[in-house]
Structures are given as structure tokens and as C-alpha cells.
């Protein structure tokens, strides 16, 4: 196996390896959102008004338990931000089934990539069937649809991945030949790089509950899930252990929620601007600049994470890998925690790894 790790220096920022979570790596855990019973409206191709009272804001979301938890978190923050939105019926949750939710038998890359979890919601937004859209930021393509903006990120949850198994407490405890279920090439490549004796069941798709059921049914010996989702669902009791950042660099924008609206809708833009967490927005922008430079897709193992260090600077760490995990390239950056500097860091890190990877790197 080949591992390469390079650090560089530029006029605007310096490069260095980052410390792990146990040594002060930047991680924050906002309060867990607990689920409650709530009434929702479900739509597929189009959105039909069912409430007699016209809502001031219609929130578009996917229908998975995690997506709904994120929509409810957004709703609760909107209610707290404005007295008119706190009134009964002022906010409506509109569930939209996306292509990615309907087709579970194929890998995402084979049916069109990450945009499959946002396309139908974006269309509803552009058609004025909803007023704002709530997305998991790691599902959002690097290019937004025309006439839409995404100016708001809620405070980020824990970015790390969780290891879940009925028989082992960590990846290191799994016997050789054990099968780990994950649909993520990022997780697969990093897992196989560190534990080549393990096997990966690909296309291990479905919502959190579906994947945990497959684990309980013995389809796999273990799985890896985003800790952020488990926290938002109040399901952390299933976690066997949490993977350190050094062992499993997270996906770009993992743990971040984004809220989009139409670019000409100043009223909605003002509503959601009150919810924006600027530290999260800048970190996500840095990571997405890295992803955009690499032209990343669901076929490409890419990881990236930006955070603020104890001195208030931005620390960024990026990784690309061959799908089989035999080759991993990493780099890191340090610079001012400011938008332009962080965009430059992300782009520069991406350009470096593109150059080092060379043609055919992702075909392994």
C-alpha cells in the first residue's frame, strides 16, 4: 500500500498536519434534537395545499426521519426568531420524495450522483411550491440551480463517523474477512487502506433505520454512519465507538444543514439570514471549494474538513484516495478564518492533490 502526505507553504497561508479529536481537533456538538410527533404534508410530483390557513413559510424536505428532524430543527429556529412565525400554522413542512429516495437498488453514481437527493426539492422551490428548502449539505452539488441561493447554514453537528457493530467495539476488533456495509466510497477507501483484511459490501443504502435493520439481520458484521445524523435522531445508543478524525476524515460538509431560497425572494432570505451560523458557513464554503476544484462526484473518494483552531485560524485537511484504498493522498492548510482566504485554501489544496494524483488515479 502507498501512502503519501505532503505539506506546502504559500503567501497567504501555511500548511501543516492537523491534530486529532483527542488532541484538540476542532469539534463541536450542539444539543441533540429530540423527535416529537408532528403533522406533515407528503407530496410527490407536485405540492398541494391542504391547510385552510395559508402558511407564511413552506419548508421543503425529504421524508426520511433524519431529513424531517433537520426540517423540524429549522422550523423551531424560525419560530424562535420571529413572533409571526411562532403562530400556529405559520410554518408548513412539505415532504418531497426525490429520485434518490425511490431508487435504492443501485449505487448513487449509477443513477446520477448526489443531485438526486435535491433535484425535485429544487424544482419545487423554483416552481414556488415551497418557500425554502432544507438540505444535508453533503448532498448538495457544488453548483446550485439558477435563481436559487443557499445563504444559511445552521450550527454544525459532530463531523465524525460512528462505528456500529453487534460483536465488535472497533474496526480493529473485527476478524479478517468481516464484511462492513457502506455505500460511501470515502469510507470504503479509508477503511480498506487501514484494514485491507476486511471486506466492504457496497450499495449498503437506505436511511439510518434501514441500515441498522440490515446490521441486526446479519447482512453485515458492522457499518459506519455519520455521528451527526445519529445525534439528531437521538440514536447514539447504537454507537460502538467513534472514529477519530485521523482514522476517517469526514465527507465535505458532513454534519452541516443548509437552507436555500429563491434568489429574488428577499423576505425568505431575511428570515433564514437570522439563522445563519457564520463559522459553519465559512467552513463549508472552504470544503466545497476543495470539492469543486477536484470535480468530485459519488464515484470519487474525497474527504475534507475545515475548522477554527485555538488561535482563531482556519485549519483545513483534505484527502483523495483510489477506490480500493491502496493509494491515499493527503494535504493540509492553515490560514485566516475569513471567506476569501478559506476559499483560496480549499482551491489550492484541491489543485495540489489533482496534480499529485495524475490521470487514472481514481480508476483503481
From TrEMBL:
Highest taxon above the source species: Eukaryota
Protein name in UniProt: Uncharacterized protein
Organism encoding this protein: Smallanthus sonchifolius
UniProt lineage: Eukaryota, Viridiplantae, Streptophyta, Embryophyta, Tracheophyta
Amino acid at each position: 500500500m502507498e501512502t503519501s502526505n505532503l505539506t506546502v507553504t504559500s503567501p497567504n497561508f501555511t500548511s501543516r498536519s492537523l491534530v486529532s479529536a483527542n488532541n484538540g481537533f476542532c469539534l463541536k456538538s450542539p444539543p441533540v434534537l429530540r423527535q416529537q410527533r408532528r403533522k406533515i404534508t407528503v407530496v410527490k410530483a407536485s405540492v398541494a395545499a391542504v391547510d385552510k390557513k395559508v402558511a407564511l413559510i413552506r419548508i421543503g424536505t425529504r421524508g426520511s426521519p433524519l431529513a424531517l428532524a433537520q426540517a423540524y430543527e429549522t422550523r423551531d429556529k424560525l419560530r424562535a426568531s420571529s413572533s409571526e412565525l411562532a403562530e400556529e400554522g405559520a410554518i408548513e413542512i412539505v415532504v418531497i420524495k426525490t429520485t434518490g429516495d425511490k431508487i435504492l437498488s443501485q449505487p448513487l453514481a449509477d443513477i446520477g450522483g448526489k443531485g438526486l437527493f435535491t433535484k425535485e426539492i429544487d424544482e419545487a422551490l423554483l416552481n414556488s411550491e415551497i418557500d425554502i428548502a432544507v438540505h444535508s449539505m453533503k448532498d448538495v452539488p457544488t453548483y446550485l440551480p439558477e435563481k436559487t441561493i443557499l445563504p444559511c447554514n445552521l450550527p454544525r453537528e459532530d463531523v465524525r463517523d460512528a462505528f456500529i457493530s453487534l460483536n465488535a467495539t472497533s474496526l480493529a476488533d473485527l476478524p479478517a474477512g468481516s464484511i462492513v456495509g457502506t455505500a460511501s466510497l470515502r469510507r470504503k477507501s479509508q477503511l480498506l487502506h487501514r484494514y485491507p483484511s476486511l471486506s466492504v459490501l457496497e450499495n449498503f443504502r437506505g436511511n439510518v433505520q434501514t441500515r441498522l435493520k440490515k446490521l441486526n439481520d446479519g447482512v453485515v458484521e458492522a457499518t459506519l454512519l455519520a455521528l451527526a445524523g445519529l445525534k439528531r435522531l437521538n440514536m447514539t445508543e447504537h454507537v460502538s465507538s467513534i472514529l477519530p478524525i485521523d482514522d476517517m476524515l469526514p465527507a465535505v460538509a458532513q454534519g452541516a444543514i443548509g437552507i436555500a431560497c429563491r434568489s429574488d425572494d428577499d423576505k425568505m432570505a431575511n428570515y433564514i439570514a437570522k439563522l445563519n451560523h457564520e463559522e459553519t458557513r465559512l467552513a463549508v464554503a472552504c470544503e466545497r471549494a476543495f470539492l469543486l476544484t477536484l470535480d468530485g462526484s459519488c464515484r470519487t473518494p474525497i474527504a475534507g474538513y475545515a475548522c477554527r483552531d485555538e488561535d482563531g485560524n482556519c485549519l483545513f485537511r483534505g484527502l483523495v484516495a483510489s477506490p480500493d484504498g491502496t493509494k491515499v493522498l493527503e494535504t493540509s492548510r492553515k490560514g485566516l478564518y475569513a471567506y476569501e482566504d478559506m476559499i483560496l485554501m480549499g482551491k489550492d489544496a484541491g489543485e495540489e492533490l489533482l496534480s499529485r494524483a495524475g490521470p487514472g488515479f481514481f480508476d483503481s
